[in-house]
C-alpha cells in the first residue's frame, strides 16, 4: 500500500483542555522522537483542535485508522513511535476507551452563576439508551479533516 508522502499522520489535540495539559510541548517531543528513530519521512506530526476526548487528554489520533490514544505523555509517545509507527502494531493499552467511568465534568448552572463542578455520574445509567455503533471497514484513503 502506498500513501501520499507519509505512512502515518499523528494529530495531537491542542484544544482548550489538552493545551493546558502540555499537549503543545508534546508536539515537539513527538517530532523529536520520530526523528530520533529515523522515521521523519514516514510520519507527519500535526496539531489539531479539540478531539472531544477532554476527560482523558492529551489525546492523539493516528491515521490510517483512526486510532485514538489517551493520556499521552513523553513515555507513551516514545513507545507509540517504536511499536505503532516502527512495527505497525498499535499500543492497545493506550487506546481511548471513552470518558472516565466514575467522574465527568458536569456544567452547573446555579444561582451563583455558571461554573464547573466535579460530579459522580453513573455512566451505565447515562449510557443505557445508547446503542453501540456499527464499525465500517476503514477505506484505503481516509477523509479525515479538521
Report on the structure:
With 146 residues, the protein is an alpha+beta fold. 22% of the residues lie in helices and 24% in strands. It is built from 3 helices and 6 strands; from the N terminus they run E-H-E-E-E-H-E-E-H. It has helices at residues 23-36, 74-87, 123-126, and strands spanning 8-13, 43-48, 60-63, 67-69, 103-110, 113-120. The chain has a 4-stranded mixed beta sheet, with helices on one face. The protein has a two-stranded antiparallel ribbon with strand order 5-6. Helix 1 (23-36) packs across helix 2 (74-87).
Strand order of the largest sheet: 2-1-3-4
Strand fraction: 15-25%
Task: Compute the separation of the termini in Å.
Answer: 24 Å
| DSSP strand count | 6
Integer average pLDDT: 76
Q: How many helices in DSSP terms?
A: 3
Sequence stretches where pLDDT stays below 50 over 5 or more residues: 101-129
Secondary-structure class: alpha+beta
Query: What letter string, H or E per element, gives the SSE order?
Result: EHEEEHEEH
Secondary-structure topology with pairs:
Blueprint: E1 8-13, H1 23-36, E2 43-48, E3 60-63, E4 67-69, H2 74-87, E5 103-110, E6 113-120, H3 123-126
Parallel strand pairs: 1-2
Antiparallel strand pairs: 1-3, 3-4, 5-6
Helix pairs in contact: 1-2
Which key terms come to mind for this protein?
globular; single chain; 3 helices; 146 residues; 24% strand; alpha+beta; two-stranded antiparallel sheet
Describe the structure concisely.
The protein is an alpha+beta fold and 146 residues long.
Amino acid at each position: 500500500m502506498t500513501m501520499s508522502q507519509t505512512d502515518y499522520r499523528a494529530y495531537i489535540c491542542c484544544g482548550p483542555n489538552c493545551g493546558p495539559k502540555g499537549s503543545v510541548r508534546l508536539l515537539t517531543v513527538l517530532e523529536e522522537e520520530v526523528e530520533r528513530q529515523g522515521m521523519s519521512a514516514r510520519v507527519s506530526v500535526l496539531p489539531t483542535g479539540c478531539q472531544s476526548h477532554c476527560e482523558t487528554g492529551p489525546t492523539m489520533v493516528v491515521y490510517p485508522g483512526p486510532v485514538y490514544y489517551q493520556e499521552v505523555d513523553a513515555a507513551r509517545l516514545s513507545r507509540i513511535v517504536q511499536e505503532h509507527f516502527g512495527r505497525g502494531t498499535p499500543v492497545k493499552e493506550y487506546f481511548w476507551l471513552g470518558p472516565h467511568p466514575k467522574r465527568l465534568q458536569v456544567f452547573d448552572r446555579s444561582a451563583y452563576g455558571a461554573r464547573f463542578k466535579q460530579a459522580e455520574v453513573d455512566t451505565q445509567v447515562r449510557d443505557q439508551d445508547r446503542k453501540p455503533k456499527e464499525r465500517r471497514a476503514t477505506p484505503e484513503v481516509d477523509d479525515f479533516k479538521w
